[in-house]
Write a structure and sequence with these properties.
single chain, rod-shaped, binds zinc ion
């Protein structure tokens, strides 16, 4: 009986350990997903910068078109200057040409600003790409590490399950069946220690003295009357 109860305690230790390992194994794929999602968020910074650059370039192109239009207009007016006869027409044209010249210089300044802006964004893009490259390396390492951890956990589960089979084989089928049934209904703890104050280590109810005596005698498996767990006495 002593060996049987010891085997049941050992079985329970393994079952608790295997449950813990299985829970850990379940968490790892979630960790991997989260690591990937975090990386994808960092990637959006780069996408935003690329978007910004294409907007600046579009803006610059529009300004270059405006510049071309105004320059053509100015050329046209300049050639007209030679053909006008009247002074007021001449001055009107001259005014228009001056105004066009001012517009052109404003547009040219704008284009220069756009070029500066594009250069700035480009620099940021290069920096971000560098950061991402490093992050990608780290991501790969982290995923490798997590997969390694998962493989190690799975190995431990296999080893402990083999150990469990060995121990279970030593327990009489009836007792093993009782253990399995209680374990299922009690979410894990099927074997409970009788505490020093004669209470059940599973449900904490005080056990009648004759029950405690029976547990100590080790003649048969004794269960707690209130929670049905198999009781054992650890000894003084
Ligand atoms: Zn109990």
């Amino acid at each position: 009986m002593n060996q049987e109860i010891e085997a049941l305690i050992e079985l329970q230790k393994l079952d608790i350990s295997i449950d813990g390992l299985k829970n850990k194994a379940k968490e790892i794929p979630l960790c991997i997903e989260k690591t990937k999602t975090d990386f994808a968020t960092k990637n959006t910074n780069l996408e935003n910068l690329k978007q910004e650059l294409s907007e600046v370039q579009l803006d610059k192109k529009q300004k270059e078109l405006d510049l071309h239009t105004k320059e053509e207009e100015r050329k046209k007016h300049q050639s007209e200057l030679n053909k006008v006869k009247k002074n007021d027409q001449y001055f009107a044209l001259q005014n228009e040409i001056n105004q066009l010249g001012k517009d052109i210089s404003v547009i040219e300044d704008g284009i220069l600003n756009m070029m500066d802006a594009a250069e700035n964004v480009n620099t940021k893009i290069k920096q971000e790409q560098e950061v991402l490259k490093q992050e990608e390396g780290k991501l790969g390492q982290e995923i490798d590490r997590l997969n390694g951890e998962l493989a190690a956990i799975n190995n431990s589960i296999t080893a402990q399950e083999a150990q469990r089979r060995e121990i279970a084989a030593k327990i009489p089928p009836d007792s093993l069946h009782l253990y399995e049934r209680i374990r299922k209904s009690k979410k894990g703890l099927a074997v409970a220690e009788v505490k020093k104050n004669n209470s059940c280590g599973g449900c904490h109810m005080t056990l009648p003295p004759q029950v405690v005596n029976e547990v100590r005698k080790l003649e048969r498996l004794v269960v707690c009357e209130s929670c049905s767990r198999i009781l054992f006495w650890k000894g003084e």
